[in-house]
Design goal:
Chain B: It comes from Halomonas dongshanensis. Chain B: This is Cation:proton antiporter. The complex is a heterodimer. Chain A is built from four helices and two strands, in the order H-H-H-E-E-H. Chain A is mostly helical. The N and C termini of chain A lie far apart (59 Å). In chain B, helix 2 runs antiparallel to helix 3.
């Protein structure tokens, strides 16, 4: 019985990694490619590590498998965020079918300055007041 | 169980090949960094499968180290890109 569960976890994990690789190859631009790789590959590693924990079923090994899972869950979104940010900064092209890019009207790629849409003369001279929220 | 391990290893190797195609084709440096990160994640999975195949649980330590190296490489590449280092896409 446990062999069946282990085998299923291994195959599904490997298939998720293959899915991530296919997405990386087939999708049109940087952001959609990251959308494919980070989630699918992280879930694949998680399933393989669960199969590991079931196979050895010792306290030390289960703890190490859970450590790998927690590490992947912590680092995958951070790495994706940092690469996506850097990719936008260096001006990687978006897909031609992109519907909305909210950053484009407000962001200056030369100075890295981001406008809020509230820059008026009055706001520039404004001093902090007692009633302002902290 | 041996057959299942073999099948999953073959599937993961295919994923490695596909990720390598994206590393070669580019078209820009961030795409290659994403592909290399998928590469390291897949290698972590392969090491996990090999730990089951060989019955040596200590390979999981190597998996942790490989995941750490992949993460640090991604962060380093992103810093390099944001600071505007020389690129040859």
């Amino acid at each position: 019985m446990i062999d069946v569960i282990k085998g299923t976890l291994l195959i599904v994990g490997a298939l998720l990694m293959l899915l991530a690789a296919i997405g990386l190859l087939r999708l049109p631009d940087l952001l959609t490619r990251m959308h494919a790789t980070t989630k699918a590959a992280a879930l694949g590693v998680i399933l393989v590590m669960l199969a590991n924990a079931m196979h050895f079923s010792e306290v030390g090994v289960v703890a190490r498998s859970l450590a790998v899972i927690v590490f992947i869950l912590l680092t995958a979104p951070v790495a994706a965020h940092v690469i996506g940010r850097a990719g936008y900064f260096v001006g990687s092209k978006l897909w031609s079918g992109t519907v909305k890019d909210e950053l484009r009207p407000n962001y200056d790629p030369l100075t890295h300055a981001l406008k809020s849409g509230l820059e008026t003369e009055e706001n520039a001279k404004r001093q902090p007041r007692e009633t302002d929220p902290e | 169980m041996d057959t299942v391990i073999l099948i999953s290893q073959v599937i993961m190797s295919l994923a490695l090949v596909l990720a390598f195609v994206r590393v070669v084709r580019g078209p820009s440096l961030p795409d290659r960094v994403v592909a290399l990160e998928l590469f390291s994640t897949t290698v972590v999975g392969l090491v996990g499968v090999y730990a089951i195949q060989s019955g040596v649980a200590n390979f999981l330590d190597a998996a942790i180290v490989i995941a750490l190296m992949g993460f640090l490489a991604a962060i380093g590449f992103a810093r390099f890109l944001e600071r505007g280092g020389p690129r040859d896409d």
